[in-house]
Amino acid sequence: MITTQDSSRAERLRILRNHGAEPKYYHRWIGGNFRLDALQAAVVLVKLRYLDDWTERRQRNAKRYDRLFQEFPLSHVANHANERSAADAGSTSSGTVQIPHAIAGRHVYNQYVIRVPRRDELKEYLKDQGVATEIYYPVPLHLQACFPGLGYQKGDYPESERAAVEALALPVFPELTDEQARYVVTSIAEFFMRDGAS
After folding, report:
1. Which of 38, 104, 177, 191 has the most crowded Cβ, counting Cβ within 10 A?
2. Per residue in 79-111, pLDDT tens?
3. CB 66 within 8 A of CB 181
4. Domains of the chain
């Protein structure tokens, strides 16, 4: 479900959800069959009652992570304002944790995604510590096997490629406790400090 106050965006989304056709059988864009069925609608109607509370909790959890990352002796914690300098240097540096920074008016923090060097090693370490993480979009769009006709190759979009190997989503679900969040950040700090990486 998508909500917007932009009428032109709403119209385009209506077209995209129905195979990109407008009028029927005349396809302006590549779309899909994204119409909501009755069962999904019933579930959404129940969940909508809780959405604002869940969002507020996720936002609170994100702020908690922000504070915790500031407390720990990682060599550098970057936000949106200064992550450009790290990108210019070619990557996040050893021990660096870049935290997300909300640039929109109301970030819902469906994910709390950090960028780190040695991301895959960190993911395995956290798994061993009992911390579930996720790597969303490990392959940039221009390198997906379904788009060979676009003609892109590795190196064409270096920022996307860098993000694909550095991004790691941490637990941010509404029920996350202070103790759990602190354990996650402590574990990350321990990973970078254990071999002098920070």
Report:
1. 191
2. 443 444 444 444 555 557 999 887 767 789 999
3. no
4. 1-48 (no CATH), 50-193 (3.90.1150.10)
